[in-house]
Design a protein that fits this description.
The protein has 317 residues and is an alpha/beta fold. It folds into two domains: 127 residues, 2-Layer Sandwich (ornithine cyclodeaminase, domain 1), CATH 3.30.1780; 168 residues, 3-Layer(aba) Sandwich (Rossmann fold). The protein is 29% helix and 27% strand. The chain is built from ten helices and 15 strands. The strands form two sheets. Strands 9-8-7-10-11-14-12-13 form an eight-stranded parallel beta sheet. A hairpin with a 3-residue loop joins β2 and β3. α2 crosses α3, α2 packs across α10 and α3 packs across α4. The longest helix is centred in the middle third of the chain and has 18 residues. The two termini are 21 Å apart.
Length: 317
Amino acid sequence: MTMKFLDFDKVRSLGITASEMYAWTEEVWKKQDAFIYPTKQHIWDGDSSRYIVMPAIYPEGDVAGVKFICRNVDDINGLPKRNSNIMLQRISQHGLLGVLDSTYLTNLRTGACAYYNATKFAKSNPESIAVYGLGLAARAFMFFWTALYPGKIRMKIMRYKDQADLFVEKYKGCEKIEFQICDTMEELFDSDIIVSCVSFARKEICPESVYRKGCTIVPVHTSGFQNCDLTFDKIAVDDIGHVEKYRYYEQFKSRMIRITEAANGKEPFREDDQQRIVIYNGGLAIFDLYFAMKTLEKAGDDCIDLPMSYPEDRFWM
C-alpha cells in the first residue's frame, strides 16, 4: 500500500482557488452535524511550547483524521512559531490515506470562515469594513475578500508603524476597495463590519458604545469583544463547547445560535439591519479534515506516494 504525502510547497502549488475553498467552507457549515469531532486537546510544555491535537471523523466521506499543531517560541532553527500537519485515514479500511502539511490549509480555512461569516451575517449593502491586525490571518481573509466580494467598500485599517502602508500597497490593485487609515480605535471600529485578526487581547478592545447599530463583528481569534456579549442582539457560534466557559455565557446563551443552523435555514443570519451581531468561530477540526480530503482529491497523482507496510496477519508476533 502507499500513502500520499503533500508538503507546504506542494499544497500551495496546487493553486486551489478562493471559490473552491469557499464552496468547501459552505459545505462544512451545512454538514457540520454529520461530523464527529471531540474537543481539541491542549498540551503545554513549560512556557515555551504548546501542542494542540484536533481529531475528527466524517463517516459520509469515509475518512478520519487528526491535526497536530505545534507552537514553539524557542525553535532552534528559527522556523515559524506555529505550524501543523494533518493525517488522514479511511474508515472502511486500514492504512493511512495521506499526510499533509496543514499550515497553508489552516490559514486559508480560517480566512474562508471569516469571509463567510462577515458577509453572511452582514447588514444589507454595508459601506465600511474594519480589518484590525494586518498579519497572516488578515491576508488570508483578504485572499477571499478580493476574489469574491462583488461590491465596492471602504476598508478601514489602523495606523501602526509601516504596516498599514504595506497593506495598502499590497492590495492597491483591487479597485473594489477604498482604503482609510485610522488613528484611533473608535474611528476604526465605527464600521458596518469588523474583522479582528489580532491573535490576543488581554481586555475588551473598545467600549460597547463604539459599535454602531447593524454592525457585524468577526473576532477571528475570539478575544477582545466579550463586553458585546451582554448587549448585542445575536451571538453566533461554531460550537457550543467553545463558548460554554466564556465569562458571560449564561447571559447570552438565550441570544445564541449555531452558525450551522443559519447555513441550513433553520435560523436567519440576521433579522434586520439594526441588529448587532458577534460571531465566535474558534476553529473546528472538521474544516481541516474536509479541506485536507478535498486537497488530496485535487492533487490526484501529483504528489509523493510513500510505500507503507502493515501487518498482514492478526497474530503477527
